[in-house]
Task: structure prediction
Amino acid sequence: MNILTFCLLLLAAPFFSYGQQLPFQNRMLDMEARVADLLKRLTVEEKVGLMQDVSQPVDRLGIKGYNWWNEALHGVARSGQATVFPQPIGMAASFDSDAIFDVFNAVSDEARAKHHQYAAQGSYARYQGLTMWTPTINIFRDPRWGRGIETYGEDPYLTGVLGLAAVKGLQGVSKDGYDKIHACAKHFAVHSGPEWNRHSFNAANIRPRDLYETYLPAFEKLVKEGNVMEVMCAYNRFEGEPCCGSDQLLMQILREKWGFKGVVVADCGAIADFYKENAHKTHPDAITASAKAVLSGTDLDCGSSYKALIDAVKDGHIQEKDIDVSVSRLLLARFRLGEMDSPNDVPWSKISSDVIASESHDSIALEMARKSMTLLQNNNKILPLKRGGLKVAVMGPNAQDSVMQWGNYNGTPKRTITILAGIQQALGKDDELVYEQGSGLVENIIMESAYSQCFSEEGAGFAAHYWNNKERTGSMVAKQLMKTPFALCTSGATVFAPNVELTDFSASYRSTFKPDKTGEVTLQLYVNGVVSLLVDGKEVKTARTGHGARKINHTMKVQKGKQYDIQLDFAHHNGDAQLNFDLGYREVIDIQRSLARVADVDVVVFVGGISPSLEGEEMGVDFPGFKRGDRIDIELPTVQREFLAALSKVGKKVVFVNCSGSPIGLAPETERCEAILQAWYPGQAGGRAVADVLFGAYNPSGRLPVTFYRDTTQLPDFENYDMTGRTYRYLKEKPLFPFGHGLSYSRFDYGTPMVDRETFVVGDSVCLTVPIANSSTIDGDEIVQVYIKRVDDQDEGPIKSLRAVQRVHIPAGEKHEAKIWLSSKQFEFWNESNQLVDVFSGKFRVFVGGSSTAEDLRELTLQIL
Result:
């Protein structure tokens, strides 16, 4: 061997270690080169197999399968134990981007740790990957939209700032060229209900101003400033084209104008909506629909429609080189995540599984829940409650509902502190608590759950076993312990358990019921599928639904001291599978009896509102006032309203804790309740956070990220996407509680805001100084809000627009000067002449204060030359 040959072999050594190493396997090459090498080795069939959320392995090249679908809306979701933070709409009430960054940095730690746990077992199933389909940054334009609970509110600026913090917390900073996690901005675009017809709805005749000033800014911010790695296109059509096939949205705006180079993923089943009956039906079949979606920039199909791309190439609807564009983006994402390399080479793999549901993350969840608490009303300063001989009644349907606190798209926490438990823990030894539920959410019947009296071989609750066939035969694919009453539904493509398919699956749930009293017990089911209920081995109920879910109840007499074996067998039939189950003692609401039980208390804490079981994504159940997860009206449910009226009539001081992910019309409640605390869906530590505010251990600082309207009459047509009359930016009537509103136990007095100069040019910045005094005896946090309006705006522009926020902590009796830098970019508004968002020369009104309402704002004028 001559010296030249030896040197060449030495240089080529990386390619030949581990046997016959190929260039795409060589970590010494840059990732784009590795992608290019791998791409040229793939067949069309293999490329198409990589373009679906369940990406197929390429065994001959050592490429393992990968599932792109994972969720982390407010914690790692649907993948077992994880920290459950407040729902995003609650986090938005903090107006605190640093706190949201901390939340999602913790979430991405847990996601990485979970992924490597699964990978070590050779498992790469749904909800186990590194591509998290969050955040939801659609504008919460109408409080009736069920999925508004997943957003950061109604304001484009706030949504962009907080969404950006979420993305940065998730994705982290690359280490050794590897990304921590990939986030996904969704749902692009002009998407905010209704849920019931989202697969056929056409968002049309959108004013360009509304498109560029309201619906697109948060997406643009996450793309340009956050380098978000994925964007999910929406179900609906935009100006006649399905969003996942919209050249205007995906090519002209997203890729060409904004320069997005990452992956566009279709919402689950959205490509099938192109050709399905009762959906958009803009295309005749999967072949033409899939070709159109790829040519419009959609790289990944969550579904199976893209299988037709093989025939689309053969039939000439698309060329292989067009498919290569999408596959290159998908492969690059996988390389950047380290998913194509050994975990030992990826720094993020060193994150310990000890972080999952850890005490430190619980502390972050508690702090975030505290910051989300929004005090709307505090008449006669009834709050904070004074301990020491206090007798308090805790009432209402949400007082001890832990599942309500988890919101939706959630994981399972180690423990949840309910609001009832939080109040119990906060009371002193001389205080007394009376618990009386009194009212249901929407029905005049309440059920005292006896689920806690069920015990299986796996532990307290029901043991669940799953099969990916309808016959419950062969190997089980999953086991779970259902510790709480279950509400399972595949709507929104949500599986019953990890590794379980969405269709053609079955399950069996078993436990032994050991009643602690004699009486009549109701086993309560809400089912879409085939169900069989057995008690002591005898079938007592069976049903097969054909057109949606329906209620099934079985009532039986039980005796204390006896045991009853309960088995619930379920199988998917058609459509979305659904199975809700609880058992307990049902009784009709008796307001007078409940009033008698709380007759001698000093104060009633009524924990009401609504629930994620009522508002959410395309739900398969309707209740009075609700339709498929959307709301028909926004008022507090009648059954609760009547109960609060009865409490008021007998002179009870009521503190109303409202749990909801959307604004509730509470006009009568402002007259009947001394205080109103908006608690949202506050996560696993929510009960303690509520109690901390009620008893003064935490000074509330939350502010409304959405307008609370008086009632439904203040709202335009739900299906009209014109912003006229919507949100604080366009609402001319007086709302019940304005955007940005939130009370504190401190008093903050604003001085005259000042600027370092009153005129400046495009490209410069101006420093705004805001003097604030805390004239109370309590330390507190104030949220300084800056709104801007262009004086010469003749095009029916917004009344005012939030353009800066700053959280400041001010000790009791002290003064603070908040300094906020305003760049010319924060003065951008719609330019009708060039049909762009632009910075105008001219005068601008700047409003500074503690909410969006005029009474809370100080004003000054600036001019851009």
